[in-house]
Amino acid sequence: MSESESGRRCCSPSRAETARHVTTPVPSALPAGTQADNMVRIPGGEFLMGAEDGWAVPGDGEDPVHPVRLAPFRIDRCAVSNAEFQDFTDATGHVTDAERFGWSFVFAGLLPLDFPATGAVADAPWWRQVHGACWRHPEGPQSDVGDRAQHPVVHVSWNDAMAYAAWAGKRLPTEAEWEYAARGGLEQHVFPWGDELEPAGEHRMNVWQGSFPLHNTGADGWYGTAPVTTYPANGYGLHNMCGNVWEWCADWYSPTYYRSSPKDDPRGPSLGVQRVIRGGSYLCHASYCRRYRVAARSSSTPDSSTGNQGFRCARDDTAAATR
After folding, report:
1. Whole-angstrom distance, CA of residue 284 vs CA of residue 292
2. Is 21 helix (H, G, I), strand (E, B) or coil?
3. Is 56 in contact with 63 (CB distance < 8 Å)?
4. pLDDT tens digits for the chain (323 residues)?
5. What separation in angstroms does the CA of 299 have from each of 77, 112, 178, 185, 296?
6. Within its chain, how far is the Cα of 189 from the centroid?
7. Nearest 5°: phi and psi at 36?
8. How much is the pTM?
9. What torsion do the CA atoms of 140, 141, 145, 147 make, to the nearest 10 degrees?
10. Which residues partner with 148 through β-bridges?
């Protein structure tokens, strides 16, 4: 199995990928935080999308670097929080895919030490099939989001994210919009703030430190998710565009799309099997998954959900459209 295939399973397994029974737990505690919930206007313009440097993951289709021109749009300052998703479900009665299926994927290190053996992804046994895991119960029935109202909602599928966006009068960002926004006005840098992972020793995102998957030093202050405004915003005022949770985009995924994508407002292939996810998560580590970068790409099936997968919404800039 290639690094790209292995890393993609590690980052976000699809619903069909369960196998043997394992137990490899590590306990965790997740405190609460605060959130800014407004949208940011991103000016239209042209940028260089993709990456061909030493950070790029072979096979993911980050290359070739190519010019893209976008119309102005608006995007959420932060990922959608548990509190916001609660408002949605209270108003609509929406049942998520994880709730319908009766289970979702949970990182083993977040489970109690005495958690019973469950199905796991064969090539990534730290991903556990946990019955009863959903956005309300992120680590299974014994857990809740009572102290995590301002953490990003997780265990939401692409279908769930689309339903929320429609209810909110928004949409999911295209992959190109997401990358343009994540770059924060910088051109061809690795991270939203530049090229150094930890400039001057400062943590700028929530990713794994230590030896994955058994030992996380927690040097950045977090083991699982962090509140949606934990780290400084990028040049456009957007928080946590890398690390913390993967974010769904509107596009179908293809590793060859950049070879023929249009320059103006690309919207992904017309057909596909998996949808694009962007940004990496609290489980990303350079030893197996270098996808906590603005150019990195991964994907998952539209009905899949995991404990490190969330989203933020976008909206057309109506003011620009009426001028």
Report:
1. 6
2. strand
3. yes
4. 344 554 555 567 877 665 444 333 333 322 222 233 489 999 999 999 999 999 999 999 999 999 999 999 999 999 999 999 999 999 999 999 999 999 999 999 999 999 999 999 988 999 999 999 999 999 999 999 999 999 999 999 999 999 999 999 999 999 999 999 999 999 999 999 999 999 999 999 999 999 999 999 999 999 999 999 999 999 999 999 999 999 999 999 999 999 999 999 999 999 999 999 999 999 999 888 899 999 999 999 999 999 999 999 999 998 755 44
5. 22, 29, 14, 25, 11
6. 19
7. -100, 130
8. 0.90
9. -110
10. none
The owner of tokens 């770059």 is 183
DSSP 138: T
Which neighbouring-strand residues pair with 127? 107
- Separation of alpha carbons 73 and 115, rounded Å: 45
Among the listed residues 217, 220, 185, 236, the one whose alpha carbon sits nearest the alpha carbon of residue 292: 220
Q: How far apart are CA 60 and CA 56, in angstroms?
A: 8
**DSSP track, 59-125:** TS---S-EEEEE--EEEESSPPBHHHHHHHHHHH----HHHHHTEEEEEGGGS-TTPPPEEEETTEE
Residue recorded with tokens 């992904």: 268
Collapsing DSSP to helix, strand or coil, 159 comes out as helix
Contact between 51 and 62 under an 8 Å Cβ cutoff? The reply is: yes
Q: Which of 320, 254, 261, 75 has the alpha carbon at shortest distance from 178? A: 75
DSSP string, 170-224: -BPPPHHHHHHHHHTT-SS-SBTTBS-SSGGG---S----EETTTEE--TTS-SS
Check residue 152 and report its DSSP letter.
B
Q: DSSP for 234-289, please give it.
A: -TTS---SSSSSEEEEEEEP-TTGGGT--SBS----SS-SSEEEES--TT-BTTTB
Residue 67 burial (CB < 10 Å; 0-12/13-18/19+)? Answer: exposed
